[in-house]
Amino acid sequence: MADAVTARNEGQKFTPHPEGPYAAVCVDVLNLGDRVDAYQGKVKIAPKCALVFRTGELRDDGTPFEVSIEFTISMYDRATLRKFLEAWRGKPYTEEQAAQGVPVDKLEGKTALINVAHHTSGQGRIYAKILTIMPLPKGMLAPTLPLYERADYWADRKTEYAAAAAAHRGKQPSAPADPNSHDDGDPGMDDLPEPDDDSELPF
Fold first, then answer.
1. Is residue 183 domain-resident?
2. Residue 58: how many CB atoms within 10 A of its CB?
């Protein structure tokens, strides 16, 4: 006699960060190593980093929501990371500053005003995405946050990226592509005014 088996659509159990504008704090900066990317029909390897933000919003179980954003590590003039940082600091970098290098890790603990929206992945998963970022407006308070601990899935992501990059290098012995050779993501955001207080980023 067959066992009783009932199949159900459980739906998405992961709850993304709510949509809307939020005062936020960058709680972590991660070096994710090299990742295999597909761009304009070509496959290449590029170095990646991720910024993790908290806003003070809590899940039903009391744990804090997080929203993260990943970038190719590049200060090329069209690079998404550069556009994001320029919007955050409220002014562009000079070419001299970009050539000297930007210490992204110093962003940990810095505040911002982010706008979060929901998107649907190719696999049908709803996730939160940071659409825009700007300096925290004068008079707006940053959220008070509990102690941050890096989630285990970041180590899993690093391992996944490293394995894929190693496999790609095994098939393609040529040198990795220069991450500065293309625009690595979303269209640039509108220019934002320079902040009128002293709460700029440290670079």
1. no
2. 11
